[in-house]
């Protein structure tokens, strides 16, 4: 089956630094990937839609200058949390839609735990 | 705006049947999905309803009524391993999922 891989799975960074999370579709091409954030005991909140070769579309309330998304190829999207603060500590997860699918099948990455200290 | 309502917690015993309801109000609708998530893990796809009616996959079934903006997930023959959070999610656009707040299911012996 289709596989989406995220890296790193766990990351701890100091407040004020930036951290990059990668989302790769390993065996299929994904024109569109989605980034979610999930705080403990809460739901997944869509942050942005990442489109290959164009700018990401951010959801209302998400700071695009803080959460930089790049979708440089059909198999890779990256989320960079800039000037991270402890309140950015969360579970970040990506999903991808396979090009040849009708759009009804979404594949999730394993997620990345970010802790900002 | 977008909103999905589902109960926050449900408790049931092993072997029982439980139904988790979801009502939605979204600006676009391309189907209702259900996901299971265990603590610390990624969501796992359970089912998808694009049209009205019942979809059955093993012990899990899902139902959709678009006219009522309502759906449910039915879990039968509950097992301890079914203890998890269950999310309904509306496909608001191709691939774009809007999640409900989640229902924590606790299965007791």
Descriptive overview:
The complex is a heterodimer of chains A (117) and B (109). Chain A contains no helices and 11 strands. In chain A, a hairpin with a 5-residue loop joins strand 4 and strand 5. Chain A has 117 residues and is mostly beta strands. In chain A, the strands form 2 sheets. In chain A, strands 2, 4, 5, 6, 9, 10 and 11 form a 7-stranded mixed sheet that branches. A 4-stranded antiparallel sheet of chain A has the order 1-3-8-7, with no helix packed on it. In chain A, 0% of the residues lie in helices and 52% in strands. Chain B is an all-beta fold and 109 residues long. In chain B, 0% of the residues lie in helices and 60% in strands. In chain B, the strands form 2 sheets. In chain B, strands 2, 4, 5, 9, 10 and 11 form a 6-stranded mixed sheet that branches. In chain B, a hairpin with a 2-residue loop joins strand 9 (84-93) and strand 10 (96-99). Chains A and B meet through strand 4, strand 5 and strand 9 of A and strand 5 and strand 10 of B.
Number of helices of chain B: 0
Taking the sheet with the most strands of chain B, its summary is: 6 strands, mixed
Class computed from helices, strands and strand pairing of chain A: mainly beta
Largest binding interface between chains: A-B, 20 and 21 residues
The N- to C-terminal Cα distance of chain A equals: 37 Å
Poorly predicted residue ranges of chain B: none
Q: Could you name the ranges of chain A where pLDDT drops below 50 across 5 or more consecutive residues? A: none
SSE succession of chain B: EEEEEEEEEEE
Q: Helix- and strand-based class of chain B? A: mainly beta
Secondary-structure element sequence of chain A? EEEEEEEEEEE
How many helices of chain A? The count is 0
| Shape by Cα distribution of chain B | globular
Helical amount among residues of chain A, as a percent range?
under 10%
User: For the CA atoms, what is the radius of gyration of chain B?
Assistant: 13 Å
Helical content of chain B, roughly? Answer: under 10%
The total strand number of chain A stands at 11
Oligomer: heterodimer
């Amino acid at each position: 089956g289709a596989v989406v891989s995220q890296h790193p799975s766990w990351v701890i960074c100091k407040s004020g630094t930036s951290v990059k999370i990668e989302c790769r579709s390993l065996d299929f091409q994904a024109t569109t990937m989605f980034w979610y954030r999930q705080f403990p005991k809460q739901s997944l909140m869509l942050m942005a839609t990442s489109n290959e070769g164009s700018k990401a579309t951010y959801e209302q309330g998400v700071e695009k200058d803080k959460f930089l998304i790049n979708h440089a190829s059909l198999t890779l999207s990256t989320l960079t949390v800039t000037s991270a603060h402890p309140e950015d500590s969360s579970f970040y997860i990506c999903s991808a839609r396979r090009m040849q699918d009708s759009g009804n099948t979404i594949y999730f990455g394993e997620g990345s735990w970010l802790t900002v200290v | 705006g977008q909103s999905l309502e589902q109960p926050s917690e449900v408790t049931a015993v092993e072997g029982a049947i439980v139904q988790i309801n979801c009502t939605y109000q979204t600006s676009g609708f391309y189907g209702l999905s259900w996901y299971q998530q265990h603590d610390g893990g990624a969501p796992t796809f359970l089912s998808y309803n694009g049209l009205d009616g019942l979809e059955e996959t093993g012990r899990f079934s899902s139902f959709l009524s678009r006219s009522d903006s309502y759906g449910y997930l039915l879990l039968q023959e509950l097992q301890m391993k079914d203890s998890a959070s269950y999310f309904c999610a509306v496909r608001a656009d191709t691939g774009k999922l809007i999640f409900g707040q989640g229902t924590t299911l606790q299965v007791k012996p």
